[in-house]
Amino acid sequence: MNLLPKPLTASDLSSPSDGSKVRVAYQGLPGAYSEDAALKAYPKCETVPCDQFEAAFTAVELWLVDKAVLPIENSVGGSIHRNYDLLLRHRLHIVGEVQLQVNHCLLGLPGVTKEELKRVLSHPQALAQCEMTLSSLGIVRINADDTALAAQMAVSTGLRNTGAVASARAAKIYGLDILAEKIQDDDDNISRFLIFAREPIIPGTDRPYKTSVVFTLEEGPGVLFKALAVFALRGINLTKIESRPQRQRPLRVVDDSNEGSAKYFDYLFYIDFEASMAEPRAQYALGHLQEFARFLRVLGSYPMDTIP
Ligand SMILES: O=C(O)C(=O)C[C@]1(C(=O)O)C=C[C@@H](O)C=C1
Question: Where is the Prephenate dehydratase domain (predicted)?
């Protein structure tokens, strides 16, 4: 009988793909959609709630957690600008994305009917996504930092006329009744989250990848057109473009006549494109962009997520 220990292999050392042992920070309380997103990415992870987006970024930087999963855009509400801005202030890398179907429920204290509700608490994005349903019920909306906190607050008020808009999972966690399901105005209510880590992943070509970059350009006619052309020329599809004011740069005065002066803003452009940094066409495109961009940073090259 062979009693010698089995030699370790590389797969023994790498972390398991279901995410067990991985600690993942998210903004909100247990039951928030951001926690659902973390669990979709790492089904067996330990989720770590954070009160603000900034705290989740810092938790990764300080090695308190391994990853952070934060929302970046929603198909109805659009971009979450705060996270675009935080992305640049922290030196983390995007290592993945999560696309999540968000189905909102109207929740109330046990035994309450939806006609009894006079006000609901929720995250402002969630309230906006259910605008028509809530208006038709004539319910007053109150903002909360996340949907799970809204559910918890509805419970602690103890008022029969106060409910929350949150997930079915939040209803279960906080002991609320589901008075109506899928109350979002748009059936296809998708939120996209980004996964951040201290180290980038090595991109491959084994599956569809996305790459996210941020850059600034000199002022002048057609500069953005030229920047976008570096991708078009190589047949690279763009999936997202976002611009944000560049806060460190002062506003430029362009006309100092007696009529007053116009001020120009300088912008940061964030682009997501469908290619892996392991592909020469992506490397050439960014090499080309670097020739005339004043600043360019690759935020991450990571596998694309899909919704079943
Ligand atoms: O409040 C939550 O549950 C969140 O995870 C936040 C958030 C958001 O930031 O947009 C995430 C997805 C939904 O679109 C609504 C709210």
Answer: 23-198
Please report, in angstroms and rounded to a whole number, the separation of the first and last CA atoms in the chain. 48
Domain positions in the chain are 21-101+190-195, 105-180, 201-303
Name the band, by pLDDT with cuts 50, 70 and 90, for residue 219: confident
Higher pLDDT, 15 or 275: 275
Contacts of 74 (CB under 8 A, 6+ apart): 80, 102, 125, 129, 189, 190, 191, 192
* CA distances from residue 35 to 26, 48, 157 in whole angstroms, order as listed: 6, 9, 24
| ipTM, two decimals | 0.90
> Which of 29, 33, 35, when mutated, tests ligand 1's pocket best, judged by the most ligand atoms within 8 Å of its CB?
33
Which CATH number does the domain 105-180 belong to among 3.40.50.300, 3.90.580.10, 3.40.190.10, 3.30.70.260? Answer: 3.40.190.10
CATH of domain 21-101+190-195: 3.40.190.10
Cα(175) to ligand 1 centroid in Å equals 20
237-295 pLDDT, tens digit per residue, is: 999 999 998 876 655 555 555 666 666 678 999 999 999 999 999 999 999 999 999 99
Asked if domains 21-101+190-195 and 105-180 share a fold, the reply is yes
CATH 3.30.70.260 given to domain 201-303: yes
The secondary element (H helix, E strand) that includes residue 307 is: none
List ligand 1's pocket residues with C-beta within 6 A: 28, 32-34, 71, 74, 80, 102, 123, 125-126, 146-148, 191
Q: What is the pLDDT of residues 59-72, one digit of tens each?
A: 999 999 999 999 99
